[in-house]
Amino acid sequence: MSSRLVLVAVLALCVPGIVLPSTWVDVEVTCPVCGTVNVFKVPASFGTYVYQDPSRLQYVFWPATTDMFLYTCRRCHLTAYMQDFGEIPADKVTTLAAMLERDGAIEGALLPYYEIPMATRLDIARKVYEVLGRDSEFWCEFDRIEGYHHAESGRALEAHAARARALTRAESILETAPPGERKETLVIVAALRFLTGDIPGAREALAEAEPLTYVAPERDSEALDGYLSKLIEDFRTELLSDGGR
């Protein structure tokens, strides 16, 4: 169930001694829907410390925790993850253009893009990805990211709703998860149960995950398994050691 964002975190943790600060630089990106040239931010350097941020206990990772990672076109308002923005399939452009004209309105100034409220950009991004089509694992991650940003901006009800959606998806994924991938999915379930108030359920999911080993093809299974084991330990120490609060 590892996303590209999560895999970046795990690979970074495998490289000892990285202490670079997190820095961003400007890059020009042409919108694949309307052809407008936008100036966006892209990471230039970062240190492994970013993957020890508290957000790891929500299974949400840098750069998704920043205001920069969700690109928005200044003209048509196409909004997507930075790694997806320039990869829009040509056969989706017409449908996206019509959807954005109808549902992509943004009030106020549009530049710089990272100052547009995340709630606004996430709402448009959801509609974009509904057109593009994504699987349950993507939407589980999207909902976790949405929950994180709503919570950061003080939108508690919206955060809870997003995390409840993510939990429903994660528990559904768990029903058919390959044996080697259950450990990661259970950690996600535990995090979401905690965030939605089910402390006993979070403990139960962690207990089930702890003895498992993460193994999946075409991934650095050993590194991710070690990261998950440390995450389980941190979860208990930082969140569940005092009555779950």
Quick structural summary:
The protein has helices at residues 4-13, 93-103, 118-132, 136-152, 156-176, 182-195, 199-209, 221-238, and strands spanning 23-30, 37-45, 70-72, 79-81. With 245 residues, the chain is mainly alpha-helical.
Number of strands: 4
Taken from the alpha-carbon principal axes, the silhouette is: globular
Largest sheet: 2 strands, antiparallel
CATH topology: Serine Threonine Protein Phosphatase 5, Tetratricopeptide repeat
Structural class: mainly alpha
Describe this structure in words.
The protein has a single domain, classed as Serine Threonine Protein Phosphatase 5, Tetratricopeptide repeat, CATH 1.25.40. Helix content is 48%, strand content 9%. It is built from eight helices and four strands, in the order αββββααααααα. The longest helix is centred in the last third of the chain and has 21 residues. 36% of the residues are buried.
Keywords:
single chain; 245 residues; mainly alpha; Serine Threonine Protein Phosphatase 5, Tetratricopeptide repeat; two-stranded antiparallel sheet
Note the topology.
Layout (H helix, E strand, L loop, with lengths): L3 H10 L9 E8 L6 E9 L24 E3 L6 E3 L11 H11 L14 H15 L3 H17 L3 H21 L5 H14 L3 H11 L11 H18 L7
Antiparallel strand pairs: 1-2, 3-4
Helix pairs in contact: 2-3, 3-4, 4-5, 5-6, 6-7, 6-8
